[in-house]
Amino acid sequence: NTLNNDYRYISLINKNRFQKIKFKTSNEYKNILIIPGLADCIVKKDNNIIWPSNCENISKYNYHSIHKNNNSKLSSIYDLLKSLNYVEESKYNTLPYDFINFNISKIIEIFKTLLKENTIIIAYDFGCVVANLCIQMLDDDDKKLIDKLLLICPTNGGIPLSFKEYLNGNELLSSEFTSKCDTNILSFPNNKIYKNDPIIIYNNIKYSSNNLPKLINDNLNINFNFETQLKLQNLSLENPRVSTIIIGCQGYDTPLCYNYSNDLNNTPENNKTVQEIEICDGDGVVPYKNILKLFKLWNSDINNSCSLRSIRNKDHYTVLKSYDLALIIMSII
Length: 333
Known about the structure:
Structural class: alpha/beta
Largest sheet: 6 strands, parallel
Oligomer: single chain
Number of strands: 13
Low-confidence stretches: 270-274
Distance between the termini: 27 Å
Number of helices: 13
Strand order of the largest sheet: 5-1-6-7-10-13
């Protein structure tokens, strides 16, 4: 029961706060690094927030700084850590990142300063892509500092929703912005996960993940080159070779393929000729079959240290406040 699950989460937080628990010595606390999703970052221009609110003012270069969002869905994990006597900037840190003009070199520099012995990385949504890209760029000695990597609803390998948002934007952002946002393009479906499955059907032609750039170039008068993003995306699908837990959610209809009939500029919600022609089980954003493929990709390695946990009846956002996730986090920290 979803409601009971939420009550159990709240009860667990309160129990941690008020029960007489054994306080750890300083050396017994893990070093926790949280890498958030896109909505868990704040974008500012002239000290005014332009993401994730007031988004009509956001554009590719019309901003000044990126910050942690203390009021996002991820705050439930911060509450859990605080209830366990973890102190921010002492025993846990957050790594917000520029998701508009994505620069992995700058991100890895900050990542390395936050990496210490017995580090637990908790990553969510696109933060899972960031986490693995950073890990892939570490030498073996630095990798040994990572005790556990926890990936919550990872978008490694991309999601069909990202291509729809590239074409049409979403309820917060226009396509003028989403078609230029680096992380949206980095979230296009990848062939290693989607193989030859159709992502878009346009004018009765099926386009798989490999053919999406061709769809753009042929129909939108854009000289679109995906090679740079594809290299990064492929790197994010490499086995991190650290002890890893992948968490996926089930129980929600999740789009796999969109049929645009003869109009790429109209959204499935506004045009009855545009349909989500294939829906599968997942968290509403990430298909659960993607999670299984990612796990299989990494678990096939002879030196695998990857496990998979499924949380039912929680979507891409409510999972962060779930009792089951809280127990998993408590078990590793």
